[in-house]
UniProtKB/TrEMBL annotation:
CDD domains the UniProt entry points to: PRTases_typeI
InterPro entries documented for this protein: PRTase-like (IPR029057), PRTase_dom (IPR000836)
Presence of keyword Glycosyltransferase: yes
GO molecular function: glycosyltransferase activity
SUPFAM superfamilies: PRTase-like
Record's keyword annotation contains Glycosyltransferase: yes
Swiss-Prot/TrEMBL keywords: Glycosyltransferase, Transferase
Name of the molecule in the record: Phosphoribosyltransferase
Domain called Phosphoribosyltransferase: residue spans: 9-182
Length: 216
C-alpha cells in the first residue's frame, strides 16, 4: 500500500477511525496532530470525525552530529523519553545528550508559541484523544507525545498513522488504548518511501490548517 500524499493518506485513515466513532468508542473526540508532517493527515481525520483539531508539539532528540537519527524525544515539559536499546547499542548516556535536549526544548517552546499564540491548550481530560502522525519509524516521538496526553487523563487515547514499522506499532500499543496503522510493511526503512509526494510541511501550512480546522 502506498499513498499519493498526506491528504489522501489522511482520508483513508479517517475512514478507519470513523468505524470507531460509529461504535461509540470516541466520546467527545479531539484530534491532536504531531507537527509538522502529521498536520495535513490530521486535517482529514478531524473533518471526518467533526472534531476539533490542535497540535501536540513533540521534538526528536538526535545523535550528536546526526540530528536526523532520533534516540529520544520530548513533549511539553515532561522529561525526555529515550530509546534505551539504541542508547545501549551506541554506548551513549543521557548526560551526553544534554545539549541536544536543551536545543530541542528551545525549539519546542518556539513552535508552541508560533502555532498556538495566546490560545490555551485544549482540554484533554475525559475526552477521546486521537494523536495523528504521518508515519511511525522508531516511534520514540509518538511515545513521548502519548505519555504527555496520558498524564492529562483522557477517556480514551488513540494513536493513528497511515504507515509504520511493525515493531514500532507493536511497542506503542502499550502506550495507547488503540493503535490504528493502515500499512505496516516488513521492509519499512523510512516513512517517505510510502508516499508518492512527501514534501516537508512548512510552518505556514500548519498555521493555515489550524485556522481552517480550528480547535473549539
Amino acid at each position: 500500500m502506498r499513498f499519493a500524499d498526506r491528504t489522501q493518506a489522511g482520508r483513508e485513515l479517517a475512514a478507519s477511525l470513523d468505524d470507531l466513532r460509529r461504535q461509540e468508542e470516541l466520546p467527545d473526540p479531539l484530534v491532536l496532530a504531531l507537527p509538522r508532517g502529521g498536520v495535513p493527515v490530521a486535517v482529514e481525520v478531524a473533518r471526518s470525525l467533526h472534531a476539533p483539531l490542535d497540535v501536540l508539539v513533540a521534538r526528536k532528540i538526535g545523535l550528536p552530529g546526526r540530528p536526523e537519527y532520533g534516540v529520544g524525544a520530548i513533549a511539553g515539559e515532561d522529561p525526555p523519553v529515550y530509546d534505551r536499546t539504541a542508547l545501549e547499542m551506541l554506548g551513549l548516556t543521557e548526560d551526553e545528550l544534554s545539549s541536544q535536549v536543551a536545543h530541542e526544548r528551545t525549539e519546542l517552546t518556539r513552535s508552541e508559541a508560533l502555532y498556538r499564540g495566546d490560545r490555551p491548550a485544549p482540554r484533554v481530560a475525559d475526552r477521546a484523544v486521537i494523536v495523528v502522525d504521518d508515519g511511525l519509524a522508531t516511534g520514540v516521538t509518538a511515545r513521548a507525545a502519548l505519555r504527555r496526553v496520558r498524564g492529562q487523563g483522557p477517556a480514551r487515547l488513540v494513536l493513528a498513522a497511515p504507515v509504520g514499522a511493525p515493531q514500532s506499532v507493536t511497542a506503542l500499543s502499550s502506550e495507547a488504548d488503540t493503535v490504528v496503522c493502515l500499512h505496516q510493511p516488513a521492509a519499512f526503512e523510512a516513512v517517505g518511501l510510502w508516499y508518492d509526494d512527501f514534501p516537508q510541511t512548512t510552518d505556514e501550512e500548519v498555521l493555515a490548517a489550524l485556522q481552517a480546522t480550528p480547535a473549539r
